[in-house]
Amino acid sequence: MQLYKSQALKVYNSLSGKKEIFEPINEGAIGMYVCGPTVYSNVHLGNCRTFMSFDMIFRYFKHLGYKVRYVRNITDAGHLENDAEDGEDKIAKKARLELIEPMEVVQRYTVDFHNILQKFNFLPPSIEPTATGHIIEQIEIIKDILKKGYAYEINGSVYFNVPKFNESHNYGKLSGRKLEDMIANTRELAAQDEKHSPQDFALWKKAEPQHIMRWPSPWGDGFPGWHLECTAMSTKYLGESFDIHGGGMDLKFPHHECEIAQAEACNGVEPVKYWLHANMLTMNGKKMAKSTGNNILPDEIFSGENSILSKAFSPTVVRFFMMQAHYTSILDLSNDALLASEKGYQKLMEAVNSLENLETTSSSDFNVEAWKQKCYDAMNDDFNTPTLIAHLFEAVKHINAIKEGNETITQSDKALLIETLNAFIFDVLGLENKNDANADSDKLSGVVTMLIQLRKEARDNKDFATSDKIRDQLAALGIQLKDGKEGTTFSVS
RNA sequence: GGCAUUGUGGCCGAGUGGCUAGGCAGAGCUCUGCAAAAGCUUGUACAGCGGUUCGAAUCCGCUCGAUGCCUCCA
């Protein structure tokens, strides 16, 4: 039997503003769409947090036994710098600045994106479609929306008619806005805008002669509006109505609102059952954003080459740090917070590494079955990874007590404990059990083991001058010896 | 200005109307030749002011603050 039949999952639906029991449209199968990156520069850590949240959600669905089709797009065209007449494609702008082909920009940053996600141990999505690969689909949708009277063509561009749509639909239902308020709050009349109303948005933009990214269409050469690609690709791969649409909080308005409008105008049905929004990662209390320069690149964290942090942190420690906050909460990045997470991560892994050697007896002081359900309860409550991690540390406490001989565990409970910990730590949270990458070298390990043996001999002979010399000089090299009951181990910093 | 979210102990960060979050740091202890490492124990909290309630950090109102969106953004 699949796990999902016995675990009642609740998710926070941004559309209703409530936690709802999760029931997929088709039993046992889930369609999930997440707005991916615009590949015009290196993916920064804030971007990663959103994708990591959905990677965790994807992993938990799979763990529960669902068949999941996870679509995460790559935006490689059609992303306007602004909505003004001279709106320029982000990719094209970057290409112009760097004097390369637009698709060269796309290729470079798509590769970077994949490299970074791999370091963070992401699972690849089921489908990763690109906007440029779906121009035809987008044009078809525009034709359909025009035919249904919710869009108008002007000077080779096509705009979605928001006031018209709002007459029979509810534009603003996702972000809690009312069209009347938005019109009332329009600051100034946009200068000579060809749009009928400031709330209207582009479905298709005419390409000026100097514009290099362009495709032929019934309205002349041009390029698609940003919101359209997600509607085209989600509809194509997941259908007119699907289970989950995710993305960053900042996409809620206007991007996701426009997606709803396009899909409803076109298909006449509510496109998404559950809207999930991941919250922002901040740094120094401010949102990370490419446009403001307040951001840090993942590689700068892994290498330690940055002006914000005191040392390098591994991808899995950063992942652990992010998993310690709920995905709907704002998380602030700081050196202290990362250091604390690193310590906690190491403590967790030490416990995991000692699991196999736990001695078993005929009775258990640790109710593993009840503890396991508490872990599921945490995840079932809108993917509450911080609470899950708190429960993991409860298990750590028991493991240490058993190790010290203060508690006992049976063979079967031990097996269940190992299975459950592995499932949550590695399958669901996606953490990796890596000591230090530097310590992997066999030669180094051999040399240090030899020195440990020499030190032990010195200590046995009460030659503490020699033993301390070995210890202190290794420490000076960043190799720390750790004396334990079962002998001495070491770690490299 | 409008809409939304939010304000928890030294730091990070969960949370339910009454019952321990958890991690890090701090303190004490155990272990140790001395340390380190590791383990155990442990304190300080719910922005402010009112209200509802037998009882609120948790519900309501107001004040103050923070953040996000309203233009591209994960």
TrEMBL record:
SUPFAM superfamilies: Anticodon-binding domain of a subclass of class I aminoacyl-tRNA synthetases (SSF47323), Nucleotidylyl transferase (SSF52374). Pfam families: CysS_C, DALR_2, tRNA-synt_1e. Binds 1 zinc ion per subunit. A motif ('HIGH' region) lies at residues 37-47. Transmembrane segments: none annotated. Residues 374-440 form the Cysteinyl-tRNA synthetase class Ia DALR domain. A motif ('KMSKS' region) lies at residues 287-291. It is found in: Cytoplasm. PANTHER family: CYSTEINE--TRNA LIGASE, CYTOPLASMIC, CYSTEINYL-TRNA SYNTHETASE. Belongs to the class-I aminoacyl-tRNA synthetase family. Monomer. This is Cysteine--tRNA ligase. It comes from Cellulophaga tyrosinoxydans. The gene is cysS.
